[in-house]
């Protein structure tokens, strides 16, 4: 029997492995549906990879792929899985224990990743185990089908396996569909195994190419259907959760100060003062956006010097101290000249007020905690200085963005916003917990990964137009150079432009909205001569700081240097 199965062509054995891997994956995804996205073994392995990846790799991924880094990661996992599955198919010809070991390894990797996610429950390992069992059964059946004849599987073992996975995924709702399809496959395989046994040239006669392609194709199609269905289902249904669209935002007791005319210069190519919804950068470690039911959401506030409290979403919405503010968020990973920055109108609960209610005092008033640790639904931890949060700036628990409840990808139902601090030390999305502690006692997520525990946003400026490398028509008409500059919670008092390393010349500043928002600027380069030129920009802060030319990478606490572009004037 083993001999016979080893005659299966390598390509067919590889296809067996691939299809079985796909079937296992589809079954796992289907079984994960009732447990939510964390339980999806692929998502979990991806998330674990993100957490375990060394900093340079992560930086490379963000730099090279930007916000597509997660897609690239998932594709990468898919490729690794496919190679493994194909190799397993070849190695498992006639050796059921190899199939079992290979599928077991995959199941264990998936289960380990899913079970160790910070937001994992004990049941979250089930989908990976279901997937492994289905992959094993599918591989054995397909290999038998490919071998054509005589490969009567040990029916006892197989019945057990099929029965077991059926039981598991029945409890997992739609997961049952995957097993049903696989059971059909079993029937077909058995029919195949009843075929007359070839004797002399088993690989020629024993391998019925057409039949194999049909069976494998049917199994692949069924897996694809189940997997896609499961993916779509878990993406579109939030399990009846109360979502963004179900809430009206409260009227702020303190509305945002009006944005002065002239804060937006409306120059073509310059990012608008308010970042258009949908264009706001998104940076987080969440492979799938947490879908939180706002009606069961709670915020727990506890720790050193706090009378422990819990808030519901409704309680936050009903407060009479709601504020509305324009704040420019920025990511520490932003390269000089990069786009990981955006400006929005936020509405929310003043964080300092809420903390005072719970008895919190900043260190300057003798409070025992100097670090506020915010935790998210997906296990992120972010550390913020208590002193900063309570120094009078508009730190808030944001409930809304640009006049609407927070979009899921920006933290629904509640996130933090603290003017002047990079996102990774302030802007916790999908917030569920606030703990008052010390910087000595706790390192937040990014700190052991090589990023600074404290990170105020650095003075920066960017040229939006012309684009680097652009050819601009001169013709004596001059060239408009324009962009944005920021120094959140300090304010921008000047922007200067330098051509070809010459003198710094003042740009014209747009009206300032607030010191917490970025500021546009424009420079009319009237004496632009034809030819290649470099154009640099620097900002001056209200505190007198002049933006440094020293070039520093984003890690550990934010990039510095002048944004410099090359243009060719025609
Ligand atoms: N839960 C959670 N919150 C998070 C993060 C994260 O990975 N998980 N990333 C932070 C970082 S690094 C930044 S820059 C901001 C980005 O917020 P945005 O995606 O809404 O632009 O969110 C912060 N909040
Ligand atoms: Mo960030």
Question: Would you give an account of this structure?
Answer:
The chain has about 575 residues and is α+β, with helices and mostly antiparallel strands. It has 3 domains: about 1-150 and about 210-235, no CATH class; about 275-450, Oxidoreductase, molybdopterin-binding domain (Sulfite Oxidase, Chain A, domain 2, Alpha-Beta Complex), CATH 3.90.420; about 460-570, Immunoglobulin-like. It contains 14 helices and 19 strands. The strands form 4 sheets. A 5-stranded mixed β-sheet has the order 2-1-10-5-6. Strands 3, 4, 7, 8 and 9 form a 5-stranded antiparallel β-sheet that branches. Strands 12-19-18-14-15 form a 5-stranded mixed β-sheet, with no helix packed on it. The longest helix has 28 residues, at about 210-235. It is globular. Mean pLDDT is about 85; it is low at about 1-5 and about 150-205. Bound molecules: ligand MTE and molybdenum atom. The ligand Nc1nc2c(c(=O)[nH]1)N[C@H]1C(S)=C(S)[C@@H](COP(=O)(O)O)O[C@H]1N2 binds near residues 378, 423 and 429.
């Amino acid at each position: 029997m083993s001999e016979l199965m080893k005659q299966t062509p390598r390509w067919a054995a590889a296809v067996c492995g691939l299809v079985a891997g796909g079937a296992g994956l589809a079954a796992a995804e289907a079984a994960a549906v009732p447990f939510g996205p964390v339980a999806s073994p692929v998502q979990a392995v991806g998330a674990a990879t993100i957490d375990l990846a060394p900093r340079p790799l992560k930086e490379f991924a963000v730099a090279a792929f930007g916000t597509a880094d997660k897609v690239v990661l998932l594709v990468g996992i898919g490729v690794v899985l496919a190679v493994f599955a194909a190799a397993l198919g070849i190695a498992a010809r006639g050796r059921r224990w190899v199939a079992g070991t290979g599928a077991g390894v995959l199941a264990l990797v998936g289960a380990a990743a899913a079970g160790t996610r910070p937001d994992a429950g004990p049941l979250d390992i089930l989908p990976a185990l279901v997937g492994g069992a289905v992959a094993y059964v599918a591989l054995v059946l397909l290999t038998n089908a490919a071998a054509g004849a005589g490969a009567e599987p040990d029916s006892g073992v197989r019945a057990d396996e099929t029965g077991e996975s059926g039981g598991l995924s029945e409890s997992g709702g739609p997961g049952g569909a995957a097993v049903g399809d696989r059971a059909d496959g079993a029937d077909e395989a058995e029919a195949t195994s009843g075929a007359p046994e070839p004797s002399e040239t088993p690989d020629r006669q024993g391998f019925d190419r057409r039949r194999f392609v049909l069976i494998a194709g049917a199994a692949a199609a069924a897996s694809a259907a189940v997997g896609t269905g499961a993916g779509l289902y878990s993406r579109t249904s939030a399990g009846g959760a109360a979502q963004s669209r179900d809430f009206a935002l409260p009227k702020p007791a303190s509305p945002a100060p009006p944005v002065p005319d002239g804060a937006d210069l409306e120059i073509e190519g310059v990012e608008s003062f308010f970042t258009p919804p949908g264009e706001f950068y998104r940076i987080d470690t969440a492979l799938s956006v947490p879908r939180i039911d706002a009606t069961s959401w709670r915020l727990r506030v506890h720790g050193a010097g706090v009378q422990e409290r819990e808030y519901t979403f409704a309680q936050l919405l009903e407060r009479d101290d709601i504020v509305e503010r324009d704040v420019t968020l920025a990511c520490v990973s932003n390269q000089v000249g990069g786009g990981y920055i955006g400006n929005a109108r936020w509405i929310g609960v003043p964080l300092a007020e809420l903390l005072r209610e719970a008895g919190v005092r900043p260190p300057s008033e003798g409070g025992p905690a100097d670090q506020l640790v915010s935790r998210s639904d997906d296990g992120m931890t972010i550390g913020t200085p208590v002193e900063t949060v309570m120094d009078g700036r508009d730190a808030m628990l944001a409930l809304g963005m640009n006049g609407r409840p927070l979009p899921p990808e920006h933290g629904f139902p509640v996130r933090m916003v603290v003017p002047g601090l990079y996102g990774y030390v302030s802007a916790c999305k999908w917030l569920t917990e606030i703990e008052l502690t010390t910087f000595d006692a706790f390192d937040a997520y990014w700190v052991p990964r090589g990023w600074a525990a404290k990170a105020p946003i650095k003075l920066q400026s960017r040229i939006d137009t012309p684009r680097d490398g652009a050819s601009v028509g001169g013709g004596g008409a001059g060239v408009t150079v324009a962009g944005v500059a920021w120094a959140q919670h300090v304010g921008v008092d000047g922007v200067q432009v330098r051509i070809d390393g010459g003198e710094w010349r003042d740009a014209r500043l747009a009206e300032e909205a607030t010191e917490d928002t970025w500021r546009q600027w424009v420079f009319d380069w009237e004496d632009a001569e034809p030819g290649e030129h470099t154009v640099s920009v620097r900002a001056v802060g209200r505190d007198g700081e002049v933006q440094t030319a020293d070039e520093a990478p984003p890690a550990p606490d934010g990039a510095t240097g002048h944004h410099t572009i090359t243009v060719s004037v025609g």
